[in-house]
Amino acid sequence: MRIVTALLSAILLAAASPSSMADKAVPQSQADVQLSFAPIVKRTAPAVVNVYSQRRAASREDRNRYFEDPFFRRFFGNDGSFGRPRERVQNSLGSGVIVDPAGLIVTNNHVIAGGTDITVVLADRREFEARVLLTDERTDLAVLKIDVPDEALPALTLGDSDALEVGDLVLAIGNPFGVGQTVTSGIVSALARTKVGVSDYQFFVQTDAAINPGNSGGALVSMSGELIGINTAIFSRSGGSIGIGFAIPTNMVKTVVATAESGSAAIKRPWLGAELQDVTPDIATSLGMARPEGALIVDLHPQSPLTKSGLKRGDVILAIEGKPIENAQELGYRVATTAIGANTIVEYQRKGDRRETQVTMVAAPETVDRSDTLIEGRNPLAGLVAANLSPAVADELGLPAEASGVVALKIGKGPAQRFFKRGDIILEVNGTPVDSVETLNRILAGDEGFWRIAINRGGRVIKLAVGG
């Protein structure tokens, strides 16, 4: 047995370079394999909390399939139930992480979205009502605050997620399935995952540490005891963990926390004003690139900071501040984690030559007044909040920078719920082009009784015909 152990140690030592051995220890004996995570858990677990959220929703449980028949609708109405819909309480369970001893907590936005009563339960089972300081749907992050007088709560330090490497050991701490605080271990399976689809900024840390429903908003912790990610999603066909979990990197979390600490209720991020595309193998070949990498500039807004720094359509952005860019999603993440006003070195390729320039990061401009307006009256748009489109509004909604006209900013209660989605661009109403909120109000004041509406939804034109 000793001979086998000695041989194993020799193989491991030969495989590891001197520089990597100095930074990270590889198990070299049976005693090393039996090491425990307990000291790290004792330091970090008290900073991970449970988050309970309640929201009220109208119940449709009385609906009967026979009410889909037009004959029955004549007598019972379109509601499909006897009497008024009953209100029921929906409960949401998740996790959160204390990032400031004063009671600042980070969790996922989807854990508390629409919640009216939010309760935080500490690791020692004390319960506190929480206030929502900031929600950010685009990153799926939210910041809460609890008040615990005369006490400094245990908090985790936000680590540098860019320092992570595939193969690093990590711990996931949360409250899966509501069974209570649970710790699982694993490794970093991959970095910069961009095809997850749970937020606007696709750049996740992938881990095989078990993450299950209820873990959302919990901590992904490094071996140094630092927070390096907020657990947010899993890939699963059954609802349980199959070893593919995703966490929002802490370098994105830092921007959201900093905004909350500043007292602002909305996050302002740098704006590129560019339409970007991934570089495919065919594009790489046509541009004389050795391999597919970077983000191809397809179009630029006249006020884009890239334009002001000399970049043009057809250029391929390869790196920001020395960090390689593999695709357009990664570029979006790197820009989002950069401060407004920062002078950033951007490396790019043009006609086979690699160049660099300095880009000053700016916020998206409001070229026209938003004029946020709640639509009322007897029309299909009632309940919709309309706004004039500018680069700032387009950026907020994830629309192309050059989008113009009038957009559905919010969808409230009313007929609009049936026909519109947030981000729909209203092109035309009853044959009249809609170029501003003022024009839209003037058209709707006509009370036509029959409405023909054209909208742009995700680049596709949809036409509606609605009777009064």
What is the strand and helix layout of this fold?
Layout: H1 2-15, H2 18-23, H3 30-33, H4 38-44, E1 48-59, H5 70-76, E2 86-100, E3 104-108, H6 109-112, E4 117-121, E5 127-129, E6 131-136, E7 141-145, E8 169-174, E9 182-193, E10 204-207, E11 219-222, E12 227-234, E13 245-249, H7 250-261, E14 270-271, E15 274-278, H8 281-286, E16 295-300, H9 305-308, E17 316-320, E18 323-324, H10 328-336, E19 343-350, E20 353-360, E21 362-363, E22 373-374, E23 384-388, H11 391-397, E24 406-411, H12 416-419, E25 425-429, E26 432-433, H13 437-444, E27 450-457, E28 460-467
Antiparallel strand pairs: 1-2, 1-4, 2-3, 3-7, 4-5, 6-7, 8-9, 8-11, 9-10, 10-13, 11-12, 12-13, 14-21, 15-16, 16-17, 17-18, 17-19, 19-20, 22-23, 23-24, 24-25, 25-26, 25-27, 27-28
**Main beta sheet strand tally, sense and closure:** 7 strands, antiparallel
Helical fraction: 10-25%
> What is the CA-based Rg, rounded?
26 Å
- Oligomer state equals single chain
Gross morphology = globular
Mean pLDDT: 83
| Number of distinct helices | 13
Structural class: alpha+beta
CATH architecture of the largest domain: Beta Barrel
Strand order of the largest sheet: 5-4-1-2-3-7-6
Distance between the termini: 85 Å
Q: Count the domains.
A: 4
Low-confidence stretches: 1-22, 60-83
**Proportion of strand residues:** 35-45%
Instruction: Let me know the number of strands.
Output: 28
What do we call the CATH topology of the largest domain? Thrombin, subunit H
According to CATH, what is the class of the largest domain? Mainly Beta
